[in-house]
Amino acid sequence: MAERRAEISRKTNETDVSVRVNIDGTGKSKISTGVGFFDHMLDQLSRHSLIDMEIDVKGDLHIDDHHTVEDTGIAIGQAISKALGDRRGITRYASLDLAMDETMTKAAVDISGRPFLVWNVAFSAPKIGTFDTELVREFFQALSQNAGITLHILNHYGANNHHIAETCFKAVARVLRTATEIDPRQADRVPSTKGMLA
Ligand SMILES: [Mn+2]
């Protein structure tokens, strides 16, 4: 089958984003967004999805991190969508409960072609270090809309906001890994009775 790789460059007055992904990678990443906590989260996304990611972002961080986080989510979503092509052979669905210390978070995905985010996560503090916790949702909103996936994220419980954010990224990584994997029982087929998902 064709290599499932893609590259997206996206430049606006607010950000200059370049993203390369390889769906069939090993979880290698090279990430530089200028936002330390966000780099740490994207590193987890790559590592646990096994999607190789090269991400370079120059954003208007003198304002705040918002444009940088949102536009990176848009570009990663577009790159994943492009790399998946017609979605032939994919497993399509996955869900997982992911534990990290005291925190438990569920992610469920359908690589459906129908962008939708259900976000059921509450943070108890507005910041993790200097990072605005509300940007975690902004990232997944941008990712789901631009990848064309249905994504549900539910935090069952947790006390530490770093853990709550990190379980969101790790759980989404793990379900993306499974849902994008080729299902050998239908490797030549688009997994939809409609015959198309893209
Ligand atoms: Mn961490």
Can you walk me through this structure?
34% of the residues lie in helices and 30% in strands. The protein has helices spanning 36-49, 66-84, 134-147, 161-180; strands spanning 5-11, 15-22, 29-32, 52-59, 93-100, 103-110, 116-120, 127-128, 131-132, 150-157. The strands form 3 sheets. It has a 4-stranded mixed sheet, with helices on one face. It is globular and about 45 Å long. The mean pLDDT is 97. Manganese (II) ion binds next to helix 4.
What descriptors fit this protein?
single chain; 198 residues; alpha+beta; four-stranded mixed beta sheet; 10 strands; 30% strand; binds manganese (II) ion
Secondary structure layout:
Elements: E1 5-11, E2 15-22, E3 29-32, H1 36-49, E4 52-59, H2 66-84, E5 93-100, E6 103-110, E7 116-120, E8 127-128, E9 131-132, H3 134-147, E10 150-157, H4 161-180
Parallel strand pairs: 3-4, 7-10
Antiparallel strand pairs: 1-2, 2-4, 5-6, 6-10, 8-9
- Average pLDDT reading: 97
Count of helix runs: 4
Largest sheet: 4 strands, mixed
Rg (C-alpha, Å): 16 Å
Number of DSSP strand runs? 10
Percent in helix: 25-40%
State the low-pLDDT regions, or none.
Answer: none
Put the structure in a nutshell.
The chain is an alpha+beta fold and 198 residues long.
